[in-house]
Specification:
By secondary structure, this protein is mostly helical. The chain contains 13 helices and no strands.
Length: 355
């Protein structure tokens, strides 16, 4: 029996989240316009010769580029695995004998990244929780709580790795900007920790001020968030592997262009890139990521080289996810439409959950 409070709207419900409508909504068009302005600023601020950058891209080594793409997309099975662990830690699936595979979780992560690339305020994260809870008749509130836990885990691991990678950069020309990134990451990590502690200590007390229906939803959200952190060493290990793969992607992009920078700077720049993508003002961090990553790389490379790395790397982390994520989204939509057209949807067996 599905939880009535959190059963998402059905496929025919006109109030269902529409990714297509969101992707062409006025706020999204405004945010894309802002991104164009930021990128134009990037090109003029660093006085970049686009012709030279394009010549470097054309001369890049395809094998290294292919490795960069492979490493990037290897992060998605790991993200799917980690999310599955978080969901099981939070008892989102209850005691049901069959739960979605790592592949299904991974495909939803890809779709959420695609959605984040065409909408602002990272609506893709909520959309991912909606798709899973809708398909498997789960508590949306509890599922959404695992997303907050995932975000907090990423911030903490990225901050720790940034600190480790940045120690050698806190000198010379790199000291000021590296220090600023470390301070920002550490502040985010502390803020996330304080927020989780406040939720643990005072969340339910504050929730009592809400209407009764919202109290129940918040309680499930809190249980999903705080319950996700069981098996923490395993979660930290998987998270660290994800971020080392992200650094590997940037390393092979740089190698493809025949350039060399220190491994510490590669790791530091890749992690800083991840922080910038969380800024919800533009889809996928457009504008912020390009300016920030180039601003770091010009500390150790000529302007054109830094810009070429950024543009080539973003062709993987942004442009390719538009194509691949859009394809995965379209295929999933087709299968869901075919399944509905084939007859009544057989909902997975599910024991009643408390609350």
């Amino acid at each position: 029996m599905a939880n009535s409070e959190t059963t998402p709207p059905g496929p025919s419900d006109p109030g269902q989240f529409s990714l297509r409508r969101r992707s062409v909504a006025l706020p999204t068009l405004i945010s894309v316009s802002l991104a164009v302005v930021f990128i134009a600023f990037l090109l003029t601020r660093f006085d970049i010769d686009l012709g030279e950058s394009w010549r470097q891209v054309r001369a890049s080594t395809p094998g290294f580029l292919a490795l960069a793409v492979v490493l990037y997309y290897l992060t998605f099975p790991l993200r799917g695995l980690r999310w599955r662990i978080l969901l099981r830690n939070a008892n989102v699936y209850g005691d049901r004998p069959r739960v979605p595979s790592v592949l299904e979780h991974s495909s939803l992560v890809v779709i959420s990244w695609f959605a984040n690339s065409v909408t602002w305020f990272r609506l893709g994260d909520a959309y991912r929780a909606f798709l899973l809870s809708s398909r498997w008749q789960l508590s949306f509130s509890r599922t959404a709580g695992t997303m907050l836990a995932e975000r907090g885990l990423d911030i903490a691991v990225v901050a720790a790795l940034l600190l480790a990678a940045g120690i050698g950069l806190l000198q010379g020309d790199t000291a000021t900007r590296a220090g600023a990134v470390i301070v920002a990451a550490s502040a985010l990590a502390v803020l996330a920790l304080v927020a989780l502690l406040a939720m643990r200590l005072y969340g339910l007390r504050i929730a009592r001020l809400l209407p009764q229906r919202m109290q129940a939803a918040y309680q499930r959200f809190q249980e999903g968030t705080l319950g996700s952190f069981r098996r923490l060493p395993l979660l930290v290990l998987v998270s660290a592997l994800i971020w080392f793969l992200e650094a590997g992607r940037l390393y092979f992009v740089i190698k493809a262009l025949g350039l060399e920078i220190s491994l510490a700077m590669v790791l530091f720049a890749a992690l800083a890139h991840s922080l910038l993508t969380t800024i919800p003002v533009t889809p996928g961090g457009l504008g912020f990521v390009e300016a920030g990553l180039t601003g770091l790389l010009v500390l150790v490379l000529p302007r054109e080289d830094a810009a070429t790395i950024t543009l080539l790397d973003r062709s993987i982390t942004y442009a390719s996810i538009l194509a691949v994520g859009g394809l995965v989204f379209a295929v999933r939509q087709w299968f869901e439409a075919h399944r509905r057209a084939s007859g009544p949807i057989e909902k997975p067996a599910r024991p009643a959950l408390p609350g």
